[in-house]
Amino acid sequence: MAHCEQVPTAVRTVDSVLTRMRALDAALPHRDGVAVFNRVYLAVTEAVDRHIEDGRFADPRAAIALDVRFAERFLDAVDAADRDRRPPACWRPVFQFRRHPGVRPLQFALAGINAHIGHDLALAVVDTCRTLGCEPVDLEDEFDRVGDLLVSLEERVRDELMPGPDLLQIADPLTHLLGSWSLDRAREATWTAARALWALRRLPDVAGEFTERLDAAVGFAGRMLLTPLPD
Prior knowledge:
With 231 residues, the protein is an all-alpha fold. The protein has helices spanning 14-27, 33-53, 60-82, 92-97, 105-132, 140-161, 173-178, 183-199, 204-225. Helix 2 (33-53) crosses helix 5 and helix 2 (33-53) packs across helix 6 (140-161). The longest helix is centred in the middle third of the chain and has 28 residues, at 105-132.
C-alpha cells in the first residue's frame, strides 16, 4: 500500500479530542441522547488510541489524522447545537430527541453511529486526504481497522443496552428498528461515498450537492431509528 505523503500540517491530537469527549461525559446528564452516543464514541476513540500506541496501524500518522478529523465532525455538531446553530442534517434527530422519554438508550447509540459512520466518516476520509496529500486508497487499511473497532463496539453496545429477553419479544418495535440498520452496510456505503467525493473534488457544485443529499439520507435513517417507543 502506498502511504500518505509526510506533509506538515497542524491537526489536533487524539488526546485533545479525548479531552473534549471526557468533558462532555462529565457535563451531560447520563440519560441525555448525546451523552449516550458520546460514551460509545469515547470508548472507540480510546481503543483507536491504544492501537496506535501499540503499533497496530501500518501508518500511524494517517491513523491519527483520520481519527482526529473523524472526531472533529461529531464535536463540531455538538458545538453547533450548543450555540443554537443548525448541525448537519444527519445529527439533527439526535439533538431534537435527546431528552425524549420514549427513546431508549440503544436507539440513541445506534442513531449516533449511523450519523457518524454514514456521513461524517466519508467526509473525514476526504479531509484526511487533503491534509496529508494522499488518495483514499492510501487510507483503506486505517479505514478498515477503525471500522472493525466500531463493529466490535456496536456488538458490545447491543449487549449492554439491549433490554432483557423478557422485554425484547419478537413483536417489540425495537426488534424491528434494530433489524432495519446494519453497520456493515453503512461502512460499505461510506467507503463508496468517500471515493465518489474525492473523485468530485474538482467539481465543487456537484460535490456539494452529493454531500447535501448524503447528509439528508443519513438524517432520515437516524430519524427512523429514533422513533419513540412505548415502555
